[in-house]
Structures are given as C-alpha cells and as structure tokens.
Amino acid sequence: MVEVTGDRRGPITDGFICGKVRKIAEHMYGEDRLTTPLVRTGPKGSGRWSAVSWDEALDHVAGRLAAIRGRAGGEAILPYHYGGSNGWLTEGALASRLFRRLGASNLERTFCAAATTAAQRGLYGVMPGVPLEDYVHARLIVLWGVNPSATGIHLVPVIERARAAGAKLVVVDPRATPLARRADLHLAVRPGADLPVALAVIAALFARGHADRRFLDAHATGVDALGVRAARWSIDDAAREAGIDAHLLDRFIELYAAASPAVIRPGWGMERNRNGGSAIAAVLALPAIAGKFGVRGGGYTMSNGDARWTITAETAIGEPAPPTRTINMSQISRALATVRDPRIECLFVYNCNPVVTAPDQRALVEQLARDDLFVVVHDQVMTDTAQLADVVLPATTFLEHRDLRRGYGTMRLIDAPAVAAPVGQSRSNNQLFGALLDRLGLTRAGDATSDDDLVAATLAASPHGAELRAQLAHGFAAPPGGPNRIPFVDVFPDTSDGKIQLVPEALDRAAPDGLYTYRPDPRSEAYPLALISPALATQISSTFGQLRKAPGQLELSPGDAAARGIHTGDPVRIWNDHGEVECLAKVTSEVRDGVCVLAKGLWRRHTRNGYTANALVPPAVADLGGQATYNDARVQVARRP
User: Fold this and answer.
1) Alpha carbon of 541 to those of 54, 111, 224: distances in Å?
2) pLDDT value of position 389
3) Residue 429: which of 106, 55, 95 has the closest Cα?
4) In the chain, at which end, N or C, are there fewer CB atoms within 10 A of the end residue's CB?
5) 164 contacts: CB under 8 Å, gap ≥ 6
6) What is the pLDDT of residue 236?
7) How far is 146 from 263, CA to CA, in rounded Å?
8) Contact assessment for residue 538 and residue 19, using Cβ atoms and an 8 Å cutoff
C-alpha cells in the first residue's frame, strides 16, 4: 500500500478521507507492527517473548482453551472485543461462532452507544434518522455532545454548505470545539447536566404552545407523562445546574421552536455519565414534541445503523447465542477479581485494547498481570494490553482482508476487498478463529468458513440480496427503499404499536430511579473538577496511538489553572480514589471552569507514570444499557514540584 485517498463515488466522502486513516501506511509498516506469533517467556510485562510458528501458537492456545473448558466449563473463557469501526467479518463471523460453540461467557459491549441504543430503541424502535447528506436542507443544526471535527469529519462540509444557505448552528458541549467556536450559539453545559437542560426545553415547548399536538396525537404515546416529568425543570433551574446562562438556554428554545427543518445530531459524549440514557431519550424526544419530523432534513441522526438493511451479522456467525452468563466489558477489572462459579481463567482479546480503554485502569492492570489468568491478544501492533499477554498473535489491518461493513452515519453498505498483502505472518480474525474451530473439533459440515462464502451467505439470506449484490458491484449499496428516506414520510417507528414511546415502560423500569430522573453531579470538595476524555482527531480511540509522539496534556481553564498556580507546560498530578495520572498541563480558554480534559486513547507511554484518563474513571454504569460512565470522573489537580 502506497497511498490512501477518498472515493468520489460516495456523496459524503466525495474524494477526501479523515487524517486518521491517511497515516495507515505508518501503522501498517511501522516498527510496532506485529509480524509473527509470540509466546511469553518472562514475567508479564517484562517484554520477553519467543517467536513461534502459527502451528505452535495455535496448538498452544487451543490446548489451553480445551483444558480450561474441560476443567471449569466454557464460561471460564471470556472473549473481549469491541471494534466499532470493523465490519461483519472482522467483528462477529467465525470469532463469535467459536466462542458460542465453546459456551464461553458473553460480553456486554458497553464502552459506547449502549445507553444511546437502549434509549433510541425504546422510543423509536429500529428507525433510521436523517441522512447526513440531507443536512443541507436544515435551517437549524444542533450538535449535542458531538465533535464532528474529530469524530466525523465528513459531516463538516455538509454543515458548512447548510450554513452558507442560511442555516443556524447550535453546539451543546462543555468544550469550545472547532464548530462551537463558529456556532451561532454555544451552550457549555457541565458534563452530566444534559438531562435537565433537555427536560427544561421540553417543558418550555409545552408551556409556550410550541408542542405539535396534532403530530403527538397521531404518532406518540406517553406525552402527558413526559410533560409531567419535564415540568420539574424550569429554565432557571436547569441553567443553574448546567452552569450556563439562562438567557442562552431561552434563546436556544426559541431558535429550535421556530426553525424548520431542524435536525439534532446527538453524540456519544452525552451518554457517558450516570444520567446518560435518560439524557439521550430526552434529546431524542425533542423533534417529536416540536413536530420537526416529516420534512427532509428534519428530526435527528444517530449512527444510522438502524437503516433496515434486511441482512444481519448473525448469518455469518452461523451459531445461535447460548444462554451463558454476560459480563459487562466496562466492569472487567471487577469481573476478573470477583466473578466465580466459574472464575474467568482465559481472556481472549481482539479488536480491543482494554488497558487504555476500560474504566478502573489500575485494577485492570493488576488483574491482567496475574499468572493464573491466560491472556491471548490478537492485534496489529504491540499494544499496552498485548504487553501483559501470554500469547500475542499478529492481525491484519482493514486493507489486508475482506470485510462487509455498513457506513458510520452514512446509509451505505460496502464490500471492501483486501488491497494489500498481509505484513509478515499476520492473519485475519476469520483465519485465526477458523483455525481454532478446526483444532477444537467445532467445525461442522456445511459451515461457511471463507470470507467469500460468508459474504455470499449473508447477502443470500436477504430478500433484497440480488439487489444489494448488484449495487455492491459498483462500489456500495443503499438500504432497500433508498438512502434518503424521510422519517415519518418514508419510515416510521417499528415499536409494538408503530408509535413513538416517549416514556417506554421497559426503560422506566430499567432506570434506577425511573426514566428522566436526574442524579446530581458527583463532584465533591475533595474532587471538584469534572474530567472528560473526548476523542483525539488523530486516533480512532486508541488505534494509531503508537504513532503519537507528543506527551499527554491535561487541559484546564485559565480560572482553574490560576487557582492552582498552574501554567502551560507544567507537570501536574490528577487524582481521585481510583488512581492518579501524571502529565503536562495546557491552559486553554476552550475548556470551561470546573472541567478538565485528558483525551481518550492515550497509551501508557504518553504519561509520566504510565496511567491514562481511564485510571480515574469509576467502574459505575449509567442509568441504561450498562454504559460506561467515563465523564463521571471527578478529580483534583495540582502542580508537581
């Protein structure tokens, strides 16, 4: 591979790609790339390895898996994986088939979108949102807890085209992100206070006669119940809790009520706290209350994974999920320490780097360092997690294997072939897990095993398979019915009664204190600052982190820095009851008082003491979905001598 550039066949990519992927060559061919299987020969973390053949490595891993299963049962094995940017062959397929047939413990994937998915499905079921290309039609665009400049760069030109045509932009974010600095209105809410803000907006829409009663009567249930719960929050009370000017919140309400089309793009930042599910649900209720659906460019957009493709990842897996126990990936340190009957004896990590992405980092490192925990890591580079493994297996990158994937945000399906030769002895997930299925005697007659067979079976299982295949031959496919469907014109909720459930009973029962109930900020006198860990514009979570040369920096507001005698470049200590991080300070007006920022995805090498932001994240979960509460970290900061 010598160059990567954007495909002009897609209306969103339109010839350019994000800077993260432009450096894929450095990732593929850099000094950190794994090229051969490795077996640990010294203490965990010592960096002492022996290079072995794939046959030796596979025999060793299969032997240990069989022994653990025979002695303690399949649930003593836990696959640990994420890979939100991967397709159905890399995340799922033969890997899921193997662990299901082993009877392994199931992993509840909760780093991202868990609370959001619960809220969205509860209110709307499976319903796609506004296509990104339709943002050009909007007269008001609201970015709530999302920073497209770092996490979805292809939306930025669309927003700029809409603004050139007269659209206004509102950004709700604790930071002055690039788009927030250019927005017509920026609400710098405290982390975790999105819920009272959204409820105050709902209450005002009802009170001021801006609620679309005709739409609600036809398409929603739970209207009065939501109104009662929202009425608990006045504009003044919500603004006080969020630390914003009440006049700015009032201005937002009037802007939103008056604009049509108006579209809200919520991000994952809003769900990363104790109130995350209720906050997302309240924001997603706004277009229903204000009657913003039914016009092109009006409504909301999530990742648009709910595009009703009529195909499913289950076809490639080819094995039903067994009724085994479920482990929340966000509480992995606690699970490794406390789960029994059976205890977890094997952690098999792929598509993930938990040492620098999972909460409660210090405890997790201690658990992974145990000699009685067999850790296997399949990855492209020597990650911080791989450093603590017993066996490390080299994996292919997305350019070195075929994958079938849906667009992120865009309603497109892509059949991406391998375009580069695998580096060294690296193997794809399907090659690895297919070989383990064979060695463990779990392959069955009729199983689809090759990438080609898995893609063919997946498409053949769809009633629109022939249509999708024909479109894919020309680059990408759109969902049946097209990619630019209008919510409440072309698509509707697929809830039990076909209506929006504004207060779904299941979510109301699931939330600890009931849906839309605000749990106060956990800050204290000892730990007064909210630490948030947003994405870097140069990485996909921790992916590409090995290429980062700059040290990690804690961003502080000028006020908070002055109160502590801290200047840019000073060494600082950030701490709470869960851990401590030592790094450098950066004083910036882009961060509001009471908030500090240490980006997610940093590796241990990027800080002075080898710990990162997730060392300060509590292992608690949000109100819905078992969601990790990264933004509920409350800390103190001091300058180090």
Assistant:
1) 29, 11, 40
2) 98
3) 95
4) C
5) none
6) 98
7) 14
8) yes
Q: Which 3 state secondary structure label does DSSP give 49?
A: strand
- Report residue 10 as tokens: 């897609």
Ramachandran angles phi, psi of 627, nearest 5°: -60, 135
CATH topology of domain 19-107+310-472: Rossmann fold (3.40.50)
pTM of the model: 0.96
Cβ pair 291, 215 in contact under 8 A: yes
Regions of the chain with pLDDT less than 70: none
Domain span(s) for CATH 3.40.50.740 in the chain = 19-107+310-472
Q: At what angle do helices 223-230 and 194-207 cross, to 10 degrees?
A: 110
How many secondary structure helices (H) and strands (E) does the chain include? 22, 23
CA distances from 14 to 7, 17, 24, 156, 366 (A): 6, 9, 19, 12, 46
Q: Please tell me the distance from the alpha carbon of residue 151 to that of residue 269, in angstroms, as a whole number.
A: 11
What is the model's pLDDT at position 307?
Answer: 77
CATH architecture of 115-302: 3-Layer(aba) Sandwich (3.40)
| Contact partners, residue 453, CB within 8 Å, separation at least 6 | none
For residue 467, the SS3 value is: helix
DSSP 550: S
And the tokens for 193? 């206070």
Q: What share of the chain is helix, strand, coil (3-state, %, to 5)?
A: 35, 15, 45
CB 22 within 8 A of CB 372: no
**pLDDT single digits (tens) 496-528:** 999 999 999 999 999 999 999 999 999 999 999
CATH topology for the 529-639 domain: Barwin-like endoglucanases (2.40.40)
